[in-house]
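Please, does this match?
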Amino acid sequence: MTTSTRGASAPAVLVLEDGRTFRGRAYGAVGETFGEAVFSTGMTGYQETLTDPSYHRQVVVMTAPHIGNTGINDEDPESQRIWVSGYVVRDPARTPSNWRSRRSLDEELTAQGVVGISGIDTRALTRHLRERGAMRVGIFSGAAVGDEATLLAKVRAAPQMKGADLSGEVATAETYVVPAIGTKKFTVAAIDLGIKGMTPHRMAERGIEVHVLPATATAEDIYAVGPDGVFFSNGPGDPATADHPVSLMRAVLERSTPLFGICFGNQILGRALGFGTFKLKYGHRGINQPVQDRTTGKVEVTAHNHGFAVDAPLDAPSDTPFGRAEVSHVCLNDNVVEGLRLLDRPAFSVQYHPEAAAGPHDAAYLFDRFVSLMEGQRA
């Protein structure tokens, strides 16, 4: 990514790897950037989306036309920086209006060097990605705009998401502790593969002291903190590359320590159990995805951000090296696996985000389910 100062009036062009282009105006930093083009269907929560490490090396297209209405505050970021490679909006707010707003979204994108584009038909772009699938993209603005053949060649030279090993690029380098709120009841070792700030907070609300460990942590590092449970976080990249997290999870499963995984952590559990993973055509991203908890029959509206999924049988439990496993949650739009659980050991995972700071909160009970596993193990 190369950037220069902001220039909302500068011309900009978005170029997809299949050759389709969209012309608009610069939004945020001016320059050029590359990534995987994906779309998010959320109408709110853009600040949480931008700061979610799972969006590393992705250019996010917002399907809602009006973005930036509430500006940027200092309370809602999910991490210390914006992680998206680029940002695409149709009609950015001219003036933010919210009592917590400290600056505009345009100013924040500029300050963090995030190249964006506005004024394009994001509905047409979303429909194109639904039909053709997520693909590489480049955004060029200001002096970076050139002839389309040259820009297209740059886009096609950018790395693909399939085969990308990215969790180490977003994870913490040092262990840190999020203390329990109120009386401490449990200790959890959380493997940071791209963790969102709200996740340890949701555990802390339940009396859990969370030790957040780097993605390179070993089994010895995990058990050095004396955990009652182990958590594997969300994160970016292709789960097929995550050999170390898979072996680490197998070490936890062998000891029957209560285990909970979210998003990338669900894919890691799938691989640890012997299932495969695959890349979805255009993924699930947004805060309005319907999922059924097959253990209760309840349908939840949930927050998603995943481009890969687990390939596991939906119709019956499977035998694995760690006992029987079953698909516990499924997406009602396309029958994609959205959760796994072991029937003979205390371990489960979901593909979506129950911490969902921007909402919805239908799946918050999953943290209570994790607490119940640890209570059962202690008893």
